[in-house]
Design brief:
Layout lengths: L5 H15 L22 H5 L2 E8 L6 H20 L7 E8 L4 H12 L4 E6 L3 H13 L4 E3 L6 H4 L12 E3 L4 H14 L4 E7 L2 H16 L3 E8 L7 H10 L3 E5 L2 H13 L6 E3 L6 H7 L7 E5 L10 H10 L9 H18 L12 H9 L2 E4 L2 E4 L9 E9 L2 E10 L2
Parallel strand pairs: 1-2, 1-3, 3-4, 4-5, 6-7, 6-8, 8-9, 9-10
Antiparallel strand pairs: 10-13, 11-12, 13-14
């Protein structure tokens, strides 16, 4: 039986206190644009001793639904930690910077974080392509980055034949596409699909998921009748769908995100194609259904973790989230962002113990070491990292559009 370390007990105390805090000041009138100031004044605030949790996510443009979910989860952790005086002698602030799902914008945000000596760590990014630009900047500055959304396997394993850690300060909480792809194949076969058309955007994370799906679907006895890669941000699928219609597959697998997937799905319906669209976590958003209307009924997507409203580990998180009064509904990424922020807060509490007023930048090596040794239960489930920086707990859920909403079909905890 695992005996909790002092670090584990401290993290559990911080998280438990966070989940018991209700009516958090600073969140009750959240309008989606708050920069994340601390919830309540304290002696530390009066003295000006501040540490900062960064968030880099799509907040103004791009996949903003996912970005707001990440920001809100981190904000909940920060506000509650301040209520609990989680880092004695310091006030914790949230610094949320927009990346607009755009790598150069994300890199600029990372450079701003790197210049801020109060930053103890960053929660983000959502987009894997943005992470490729952000992670090296933060790593060079010694800033720990914990992603609640990246799924590109190369971010932790590299592009070579043998897995190799890319950045000492980078960690990922969710299952990557080398796990999500096979999961989607098993779900497609469970649904009875035997012939698939596979279309993807060209960016590595989207094409990579589609490539994994195509290879594994074939290996599992299915047939890929059409494979096509389209430019990122494509809005006209007329040519691709003409081919798909002639081949009449029983599912269209799409590697990409909800904004582009919605255009594909809508045009497929207009072309008279009855096959459902299936994709990864990038398409599982209410905006996808809103764009497709009735034509989206029966479409399928995987997403990370278990449904927040059905997960036993997220029960207290959900209650605290709703009491906080955020404008947005809680989504799949909020619990992971909450856990990421709490991991950074606990690590900083240990590193800064008895050091009121010292620069957080002087203790970043201690913070990353503490995060690497995490072995805790959080709102998203159990968290512990392997030698590459991946969470060893990998849970995925298949969703289907039913009556205009994403409804969970089945969840699985997977190895990998």
């Amino acid at each position: 039986m695992h005996t909790p370390s002092s670090r584990t007990r401290r993290w559990a105390a911080v998280a438990a206190t966070a989940l018991l805090v209700v009516g958090l000041a600073g969140c009750g009138d959240d309008d989606g644009d708050d920069d994340g100031a601390a919830a309540s004044p304290s002696a530390a605030e009066a003295e000006g001793a501040v540490v900062t949790i960064g968030v880099i996510a799509p907040l103004e443009d791009g996949l903003v639904d996912f970005g707001h979910d990440i920001r809100n989860g981190a904000q909940l952790a920060v506000d509650a930690a301040n209520e609990a005086d989680a880092i004695p002698g310091y006030t914790i602030e949230l610094k949320a910077l927009d990346d607009s799902s755009d790598p150069p914008t994300g890199k600029a945000a990372a450079e701003e974080m790197a210049e801020d000596d109060t930053v103890i760590g960053v929660v983000g990014t959502y987009n894997s392509g943005v992470a490729r630009e952000v992670a090296p900047v933060l790593d060079a500055a010694g800033i720990t980055m914990i992603s609640p959304g990246n799924t590109d396997p190369a971010l932790t394993k590299g592009d070579g034949a043998e897995p190799e850690r890319q950045w000492e300060h980078y960690f990922r909480l969710v299952a990557a596409d080398d796990v999500q792809g096979p999961f989607l194949v098993s779900q497609a076969r469970e649904e009875g699909f035997t012939e698939a058309a596979v279309i993807s955007e060209s960016k590595p994370v989207s094409k990579g998921l589609a490539d994994v799906f195509a290879a594994d679907f074939t290996a599992a006895g299915g047939s890929v009748v059409h494979r096509q890669v389209v430019p990122d941000g494509t809005t006209d699928f007329t040519g691709a769908l003409a081919t798909v219609r002639a081949l009449a597959p029983d599912v269209i697998f799409f590697g990409g995100e909800y904004q582009v997937a919605a255009a594909l799905q809508k045009q497929a319906g207009e072309a008279g194609i009855e096959a459902p669209v299936m994709g990864g976590d990038g398409i599982k958003d209410p905006a996808y259904i809103a764009a497709g209307g009735d034509a989206s009924e029966g479409d399928l997507a995987s997403s990370i973790g278990r449904p927040v409203r059905e997960s036993e580990t997220a029960t207290d998180f959900l209650e605290a989230y709703e009491d906080a009064g955020f404008e947005e509904e809680p989504g799949d990424f909020g619990p992971y962002a909450f856990d990421a922020a709490n991991l950074l807060i606990e690590a900083a509490a240990e590193a800064l113990d008895g050091t009121t007023g010292e620069s957080a930048a002087d203790h970043r090596d201690e913070i990353v070491a503490a995060v690497a040794e995490a072995d805790v239960d959080g709102a998203s489930g159990h968290v512990s990292f392997d030698e590459l920086g991946d969470n060893q707990t990998k849970v995925l859920t298949l969703y289907r559009v039913e009556d205009g909403e994403w409804a969970a079909v089945r969840s699985e905890e997977l190895a990998g």
